[in-house]
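Long-time lurker, first post. I've been practising inverse folding by hand and with some scripts of my own, and I keep getting stuck on stretches where the structure tokens seem ambiguous. Below is the full token string for one chain I'm working on. Before anyone asks, I'm not after the true native sequence, just a reasonable design that respects the backbone. If someone could post their per-position residues I'd love to compare against what I wrote down in my notebook.
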């Protein structure tokens, strides 16, 4: 332990014991206090548990006084850490699968604005992704995140369900970063429960914004694309396709209807790899 930590232990030990903790509670308190000192996310989660279990009650009457004496945290600082840990958990849960390579927060100050704002968990994840984009793919500063939160409050958010329905078909546009390769591909919406739209493309599921979707109004295309997607999926699930087959499937992912030649190529691949088709 550091000199300051030793000093803190002496101070705590000298305090009047208000209510004795069990041996297990003492062990829990020590374990959780170490977490508070190591990392902001662990700190927030540990503080929450210390508060909820009232593990401070042997030496302090209030959680706030305990945080001040034990960690030199003000009330606001302690509750910010707790709120930031909750936001961090929401980011891990609600960040789209294809965005998990994006950096996560490294301190609670980056999440201060999100912790204070009254935003749904999915909105918190969306705001964080916007911050990462503005920071050039790096962890955004608290100032950047605060600016995004303020902009979100200025204008009403459009729900995905106000923009489209499950099964609607689109052409992807204005995607950036590693997803830009899907610009021009067709996509089918399968989840419109948040502010973003989850769509299937020929080889992956993506989470995109409404502005990334250009509606396709043709009834024939709306009817045919789900069947084409299923045929492509069956072939990809074979798992040992030749590179030429992958090339054909990639190309089909950019066309909203099949020419006779493309239909023939797809049928030939299904026959070659012994995959049953379900043509519509």
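-- Answer (accepted) --
I ran through it position by position. Result:
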């Amino acid at each position: 332990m550091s000199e300051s930590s030793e000093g803190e232990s002496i101070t705590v030990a000298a305090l009047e014991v208000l209510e004795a903790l069990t041996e297990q509670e003492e062990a829990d308190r020590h374990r959780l206090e170490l977490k508070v000192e190591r990392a902001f996310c662990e700190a927030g989660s540990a503080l929450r548990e210390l508060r909820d279990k009232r593990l401070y009650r042997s030496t302090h009457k209030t959680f706030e006084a305990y945080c001040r004496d034990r960690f030199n945290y003000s009330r606001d600082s302690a509750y910010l850490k707790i709120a930031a840990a909750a936001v961090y958990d929401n980011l891990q849960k609600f960040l789209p699968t294809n965005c998990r390579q994006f950096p996560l927060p490294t301190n609670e100050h980056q999440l201060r604005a999100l912790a204070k704002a009254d935003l749904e968990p999915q909105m918190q994840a969306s705001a964080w992704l916007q911050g990462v984009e503005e920071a050039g793919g790096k962890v955004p500063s608290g100032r950047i995140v605060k600016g995004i939160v303020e902009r979100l409050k200025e204008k009403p958010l459009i729900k995905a369900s106000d923009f489209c329905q499950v099964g609607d078909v689109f052409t992807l546009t204005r995607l950036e970063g590693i997803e830009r390769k899907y610009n021009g591909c067709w996509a089918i919406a399968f989840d419109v429960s948040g502010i973003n739209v989850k769509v299937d493309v020929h080889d992956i599921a993506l989470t995109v914004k409404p502005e990334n979707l250009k509606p396709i109004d043709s009834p024939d295309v709306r009817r045919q694309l789900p069947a084409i997607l299923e045929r492509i999926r069956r072939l990809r699930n074979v798992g040992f396709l030749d590179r030429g087959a992958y090339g054909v499937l990639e190309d089909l992912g950019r066309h909203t209807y099949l020419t006779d030649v493309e239909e023939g190529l797809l049928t030939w691949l299904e026959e070659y790899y012994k995959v049953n088709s379900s043509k519509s």
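A couple of notes from the structure itself: The two ends are 71 Å apart (CA to CA). The chain has a mean pLDDT of 84. Happy to go over any region you disagree with.
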